[in-house]
Amino acid sequence: MKVLVTGGGGYIGAVLCQRFLDAGHDVRVLDRLYWGRKPLERLIERIELVVADVRAFEPSALDGIEGVVHLAGLSNDPTAEYNTEANWEMNATATEKLAHACRARGIRRFTFGSSASIYDGLGDGIFDERTHVTPRGAYSESKFAAEKALLAVAGEKFAPVILRQGTVYGFSPRLRLDLVVNTFIKDALLRGKLFLHGGGWMFRPLVDINDVAEAHLRCIEAPAGSLGGEIFNVVHENFQIRQLAMLVAGSLSLRGRTVQLEDAPVPAINRNYRCTNRKFADRVNFTPHVTVLESIEGILRHVPVDNPTELAHPRYYNIAWMTLLEEIDATRAGFESVWSARRTLATPAEAAVKLA
Question: What angle do CA 242, 246, 249 make, to 5 degrees?
Fold first, then answer.
């Protein structure tokens, strides 16, 4: 099957593309390469790459495509709040346009990477896909709007599957260190301490990045239309933040590193919610299984444990990277250099690395 992956050069996308190739599918990536080509460098000879913004791409990007995995967009609360207009354009408007384009082409297989953060603010309980949600915050609101747009055009010619992914953890060639487990590993290595805001008692549903990739693969490979128009949570387990900190500290203690846990004030955005994976397990026969401990060890095998200063680089943090690019564009010399680099390298990320 020939599959288009939007956002294929991102944190989840880089892992997902590898999984789809391993399963024998042909992969076309549509990505503006905001993070450069490096996340895809090991795959570049095996994929077809379309460098474009999901908000404005040529219709030919869908030529010959039999399935779409839609991951492109801004990917968490802080990033969405940083630029609410771009967040809505990418996460909501672009998703609706892509849905209509796929429907017009008769592309039935379609998965969308939504977010379990839609359940935030509902109070106690373990929520499922039937729960009435009232998203709060730019990110969750845009994801929910995208869900509604997809369901509005679902039918015989277009069968989208919406995957409400838990907070993702794990290693990726486009590594992010602004996700809770990954962040704790970085802080433990750089500072030797972890801060538990509000005591770390809040819950969060989590899932490993490889399990997310597998979830999309199984939905794309399912008989066309069999899962269409449905929403599924994709979650390994619900954890308290405090538990995650202990798991990271314990893993590093086995490597001879002492990590202190310290209480800290409640954060301005205090997310606390739980949800269940039961429907996905029953309908798709798949339960995410990669544990936090396994994932921690996987990350530690890939990062410079003995010289972790590299982990402070802006490339690992969405907002820091966006800010760096804006600062470059704000200066005349930087502006001229960026466009010169873009003509040569074709991506703002590579221009930023050249200038940083």
Answer: 135
